[in-house]
């Protein structure tokens, strides 16, 4: 008998680093085409090349991913868990190859087969698992955590249908389902071994034994399975790879076999459909109330799954949960995951046997909460009846937390009834509701706003009394954007120019962009900077020409407002100004008008009537203005449908002028404002959100601030300001509004905009009339400035050079130090 051959142990070693030269990459791409996709290169279609390329890049990320995971496990470093309902990721391929320094080798490799990398990149669908700024911030933060070496995990929901696809039909928004998973998703790994049961409904059983504290056991009546899907997020230069773990809902029993065998083929699948519905669609409401039972189910579902996962991982590395807060920081991205506070208490007290006070200390030390809006309609509060039915034990816990907080406020601070009512977790005024903002606040050791102004307003308004009770809790963390996606990748022309002019240091430290500041006075540099901008404008003009058959003059001012459509963001003000300008150009054709292209893009929440009317108006006005020969090329108006991350990557580098004109006090921060300015656009804006800090950084000569300040807006609102008298004494405004009301732009339905206009006369809640004149004047001074190109371009250069502070790497470092005590340099 021959001896059994000895099997060499594999060991836990990661394979040798891969070669990154074009030859190796080309060979591996063909290998993937052949063995993973089953296609001969000759038969391969465009999507096959995308998939094969992604898989080759992914292999490289995995090597780094394992190394990162091992490093964190071995060092026992504190981990950061970012809980967010939204991750507005966009495409990942370009990000990945940029961060791995593989862009040129991959381009070369594909060229060997006559395949263009740019074409392949465009095929990747946007992962649009978010609505707007809040979701995009979460995506920037994931990338920045990896880039700055913070061991982080993002937790969210794997929506089958992300943010809806917007089409414009006869000027109006039409919403269509989005299908990003249609071709599969090569970035994700399904983790069947990381799935958890999530309960809903049922009852709470209280067990009492003499001499022992009461025990509560929740017996849910319904259970669904949360299954993890992991996407690796690679940081700059591949130094660290973190995980984005998204939960998908599935039925515990995929099919009720008895029902099926009895012939009830539909009924047999009811449970499964109900479970899967939880993660089927993203709620398309941004800064807007989306109070539906399904939404609360989504919130609890992903919070509960994430907490189980966090606790499982913690207990696999630690003896108990006593040190949870030393090893784990959980950041609540807005109130959407705020139910986590009650759920962690339930797990600690009911499941792991902690006494209440100890559990509360651990919970509070573990959580941080970021507030992203003060708009009353966006502050989440759930009817008690619904909450109690769906989450009976969590409701009991919330009552108990509330009782403790109220006792503390009354005893320690002597709060009166009114103050108690303001801090209470239960709103007694509107049919009894649970206030998620208050829950998140009291359950966190740190609460932050997203710009200096917003943070101050948090203290003065919504959280005024809680701030009095816990004066050290609120702090500011101004938002930022990742310079990899929002400069290097979206604007290779400018990045290349800057590299030549000031060297590559800014690639690793965005604040080094300041070295370009002095170049604003260098006419040769200005010319090259202008040439890059012109190329970017021409590229956008081509896209607009292809999609909308509108021809643009790339030498006009590209004046751009792209963001969610919302009354407070005041796209309406911008449109009214466009109409006034249109009227003036027609009345005074002899004047030296600066040619202008006004570009809009953005989606309205499907149920938000006024926002949809604003979209319709923009399209109606565009149609009339663009077809009026009297305007010549002096004014063009464009509404680009289906704004998303990928479109933003083309738009940001092509702007001369960035519109950040929200009613002061209402835009918590904004992040589009940062992307535009970083790419050399001048800003016209109000003193709102992060515009205030942008003014400080770029200097008042390089930004155009107009309009009422936040306190003035509040004052006018208290005085029941209306627009009528302003309209009466401002002919430019009156004529523009008259044109809208009389049906100049909607001959088919002249009454279409009556409500929009009459709201201005009667109320002007958003201060459109109040700010019109200041806005008009600021625009005209920009017209004049644009005629002096060298001065304009030097201001544009100052913008790029001075925006380095607005990198999300800076934001993340601040969170790491002040809130999480995690990441490089934060070890005890
Ligand atoms: C938002 C704010 O409206 C934005 O101003 C902010 O930049 C963003 C990220 O902090 O959060 N809040 C929200 O509900 N949606 C947002 O975009």
Automatic annotation (TrEMBL):
Pfam families, per the entry: Phosphorylase
Transmembrane segments: none
Keywords: Carbohydrate metabolism, Glycosyltransferase, Pyridoxal phosphate, Transferase
Enzyme Commission code: 2.4.1.1
Keyword Glycosyltransferase on entry: yes
Family: Belongs to the glycogen phosphorylase family.
NCBIfam families: P_ylase (TIGR02093)
Protein name as catalogued: Alpha-1,4 glucan phosphorylase
